[in-house]
């Protein structure tokens, strides 16, 4: 089953192919597509994970940082096989 991601980057709608073989999650895929280095972001995310008791803190950090970078409306879509084929 094919997958793709739709997202908005700095006001421009985008669509890219996605595979779990290449990326851990959709956020890493969209950052790679836009040429953004996530080393410092991933280090901070790891520190938050080690110090917090709530998984929601990690999710909130990720969402706020990607919004700050210019991303919005990130969605993973699964393409269904065409029934007519």
Number of helices: 3
Distance between the termini: 15 Å
β-strand percent reads: 25-35%
Q: What's the helical proportion of residues? A: 40-55%
Number of domains: 1
Index terms:
3-stranded antiparallel beta sheet; 3 helices
How is this structure best described in words?
The chain has about 80 residues and is α+β, with helices and mostly antiparallel strands. It has one domain (about 5-80). About 40% of the residues lie in helices and about 25% in strands. The chain has a three-stranded antiparallel beta sheet. The longest helix has 15 residues, at about 55-70. It is globular. It starts with a strand and ends in a 7-residue tail after the last strand.
Write the layout of secondary structure elements.
Blueprint: E1 3-9, E2 12-18, H1 26-33, H2 39-51, H3 55-69, E3 71-78
Antiparallel strand pairs: 1-2, 1-3
How would you briefly describe this protein structure?
The chain is of the alpha+beta class.
């Amino acid at each position: 089953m094919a997958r793709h991601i739709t997202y908005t980057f700095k006001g421009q709608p985008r669509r890219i192919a996605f595979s779990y073989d290449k990326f851990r999650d959709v956020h890493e895929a969209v950052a790679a597509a836009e040429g953004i280095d996530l080393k410092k972001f991933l280090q901070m995310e790891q520190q938050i994970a080690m110090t917090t008791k709530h998984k929601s803190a990690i999710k909130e950090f990720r969402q706020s940082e990607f919004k700050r970078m210019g991303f919005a409306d990130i969605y993973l879509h699964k393409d269904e096989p065409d029934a007519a084929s």
